[in-house]
């Protein structure tokens, strides 16, 4: 009986963490309505380090979001929202180096789940736009898909540029500001601005080291995918985009 109470208490703390970031009870219910999530929460509750730490619910929330992103049976919109929320949490965690290093193994596991899922679902994070959809709906879905690919790309570039950013914190601040604005726009259900902010950050990161994209095959694939979305859907439906592209 006591174990069940402790489990529910810990789960309520983790739910409150996610709800504070995204105040939508229906979304929270969906995120936690998974056997793998509940099983993992029970395991984390018994972790002697994590469960007793004040940051335990924050860490557990990262794992819950990562499991939802990685799940092959998650709804695409849920996966994308979880990816956006998790990306923002990982950015926050990395901004506190001591905290990140103290839980480095945990964050490595979460980041691997996150990146592997984004790579696997690249190009499928939002339903594919079809030619018989109204133009505005097709454009919105194109930006949904493009912003999911772009957010993964920017986070990857930040990691690859890590050594440079240690010596140039002002550049890191600029890139992370673009990442944060992109997540804020996605949270506010504005995929166009989310995409443009992510691309602004990518443009800045590429200028730091133009060889990064060429040296990372999956980044090259991401660039090709974004170009394809622009060419096939965004530009035909929004011609003005060609006059002011978000990156070169």
Helix content: over 70%
- Biggest pleated sheet: none
Number of E-type strands: 0
Instruction: Provide mean pLDDT, rounded.
Output: 77
How many domain units? 2
Which term fits the overall shape? globular
Question: Which class best fits the helix and strand makeup?
Answer: mainly alpha
Question: How many DSSP H or I helices?
Answer: 13
Characterization of this structure:
The chain is mostly helical. It has two domains: 1-121, no CATH class; 128-248. Helices cover 77% and strands 0% of the residues. The protein contains 13 helices and no strands. The chain has helices at 2-21, 25-32, 35-45, 56-70, 76-94, 97-102, 104-120, 135-160, 162-167, 169-187, 191-208, 211-215, 217-237. Helix 8 (135-160) runs antiparallel to helix 10. It is globular, with a radius of gyration of 19 Å.
């Amino acid at each position: 009986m006591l174990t069940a109470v402790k489990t529910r208490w810990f789960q309520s703390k983790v739910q409150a963490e996610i709800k504070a970031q995204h105040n939508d009870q229906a979304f929270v219910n969906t995120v936690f309505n998974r056997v793998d999530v509940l099983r993992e929460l029970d395991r984390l509750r018994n972790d002697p380090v994590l469960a007793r730490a004040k940051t335990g619910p924050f860490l557990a929330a990262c794992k819950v979001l990562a499991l939802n992103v990685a799940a092959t049976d998650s709804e695409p919109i849920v996966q994308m929202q979880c990816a956006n929320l998790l990306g923002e949490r990982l950015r926050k965690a990395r901004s506190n180096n001591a905290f990140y290093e103290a839980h480095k193994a945990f964050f490595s596991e979460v980041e691997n789940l996150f990146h592997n899922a984004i790579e696997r679902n690249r190009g499928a994070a939002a339903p594919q736009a079809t030619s018989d959809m109204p133009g505005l709906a097709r454009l919105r879905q194109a930006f949904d898909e493009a912003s999911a690919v772009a957010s993964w790309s920017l986070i990857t570039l930040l990691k690859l540029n890590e050594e440079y950013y240690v010596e140039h914190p002002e550049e890191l601040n600029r890139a992370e500001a673009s990442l944060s604005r992109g997540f804020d726009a996605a949270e506010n259900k504005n995929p166009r601005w989310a995409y443009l902010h992510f691309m602004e950050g990518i443009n800045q990161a590429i200028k730091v080291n133009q060889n990064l994209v060429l040296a990372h095959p999956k980044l090259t694939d991401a660039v090709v995918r974004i170009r394809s979305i622009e060419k096939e859907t965004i530009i035909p439906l929004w011609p003005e985009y060609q006059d002011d592209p978000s990156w070169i």
